[in-house]
Specification:
- 23% of the residues are buried.
- By secondary structure, the chain is mainly beta.
- The strands form two sheets. A six-stranded antiparallel barrel has the order 6-9-8-7-10-11. Strands 1, 2, 3, 4 and 5 form a five-stranded antiparallel sheet that branches.
- Strand 1 (3-5) and strand 2 (10-19) form a beta hairpin.
- The protein has helices at 152-160, 166-170, and strands at residues 3-5, 10-19, 22-24, 33-38, 51-53, 60-69, 79-85, 88-97, 106-115, 122-127, 133-142.
Length: 171
């Protein structure tokens, strides 16, 4: 297979896979797996790197999320936040989109460094001082569209992506 690893999309080849201490042909979501890869030095593998098919590779410094704040938590527009996605950690800014009372409540995360994320991935937000968890949400769209954030057409498109089913959302 044509696989790539991490943000840098380094091409790699899988030598072998072990799942639950047994040789296996494949590993799936949630498996405890060991994957022996060739074509890269072990020091080039970073926490949070994804191993994906070349055609499925996607990184972005901009994520639109369906924002869910914890009780008594608040965020300021363009405030600094820590973003946790799976085992990855990034720092960025949050741009609140649309009305505060809207459902879904959309926000765009503008990250200092790119992150591998896809529709439906869960995000946890912490305040910049790391004193409190603010909330989180699900990724609605990973990428930057060439339009203004609060433009009605852009908001309508992002709202249409707020669905459980990625195929429906992206159709």
């Amino acid at each position: 297979d044509n696989l790539v690893l991490g943000i840098a999309a380094k091409p790699v080849r899988v030598r072998s896979i072990r799942v639950q201490n047994q040789d296996a042909e494949a590993a799936t979501h949630g498996d405890r797996a060991a994957i022996n890869i060739a074509g890269i030095d072990h020091q080039d593998v970073q926490r949070g790197d994804w191993l994906v098919a070349k055609t499925a590779y996607n990184t972005s410094s901009n994520l639109v999320i369906d924002l869910q704040l914890l009780h008594n938590a608040s965020v300021k527009n363009w405030g600094r936040v820590h973003v946790h996605a799976a085992t990855s950690h990034r720092i960025g800014r949050i741009a609140l989109l649309g009305d505060e009372t809207a459902s879904p409540r959309l926000a765009e995360l503008v990250l200092d460094e790119p992150l591998q994320a896809k529709h439906g991935d869960r995000i946890v937000l912490r305040d910049y001082a790391r004193r409190a968890t603010l909330g989180g949400g699900a990724v609605v769209f990973a990428g930057r569209e060439p339009t203004r954030r609060r433009h009605p057409e852009h908001l309508a498109r992002m709202n249409s992506y707020c669905t459980e089913d990625a195929q429906t959302a992206l159709a």
